[in-house]
Amino acid sequence: MEGILVQAAPVLPVLVIDDPALAVPLASALWQGGISVLEVTLRTGPALEVIRHIRQELPEVVVGAGTVLSARQMQQAQQAGAQFAVSPGFTPALAEAATGQQMPWLPGVQTASEVMQAREAGFRQLKLFPAGERGLELLDSYAGPFQDVVFCPSGGINPASLARYLERPNVICCGGSWLAPRVLVEAREWPTITGLARQARESC
Ligand SMILES: O=C(O)C(=O)C[C@H](O)[C@H](O)COP(=O)(O)O
Fold it and tell me: What is the mean pLDDT of the chain?
């Protein structure tokens, strides 16, 4: 995971794509704005096809699968070409699948016990999900006991809170859907999305 997250911009767009025809133009728009690592959530029927499409058409872009809830989805994502996987939580079954498949995996955590479980299973880069209202406070509290763990907070982050998250020494990147809101994607507002990507990069 290390290399992939370091490349991640420091922002990781969380994408929900219903129409595979929009995948490549969207990935291109983000890439033009300086973002070359994306998370395509497996929340829509064509998500695996979307991952395949972007990998084929834009080899310069690094594509991960998000909302990976089962070992089977982890495997399907890897077969479709996903280069990493992201989950909203941590389960031993997913940890085993990621390790067995050698799939870089960013598991979600919220509590200190979950951080400890993920750490015990060998994971040191974790998603803090949902970051929500308490994200900054949790990150500051976790910096004490978990000095070898870094986080990618996600869930509830927006352009106004981004800089405060990225200032934290235990934050490696921030994830979020604000970079490609569904309404802009469906309206094919590519220059606006490139602008959002650029703005996020500049705020870092
Ligand atoms: O499902 C996953 O694996 C995820 O990565 C969850 C996403 O990070 C959040 O759903 C993004 O939250 P918003 O930016 O508030 O829309």
Answer: 94
Contact criterion met (CB below 8 Å) for 127 and 103 = no
pTM recorded for the entire structure: 0.95
114 as an active site residue: the answer is no
Ligand 1, atom 14, lies closest to the CA of 176
First to last CA, the chain: 21
Q: Rounded to an integer, what distance in angstroms lies between the CA atom of residue 61 and that of residue 125?
A: 21
Active site residue 133: no
**Given a cut of 80, is residue 67 above it in pLDDT?**
yes
ipTM for this model: 0.95
Instruction: For residue 110, give both structure tokens.
Output: 């919220």
User: Class for domain 1-203, per CATH?
Assistant: alpha beta
Name the residue ranges covered by the structural domains of the chain: 1-203
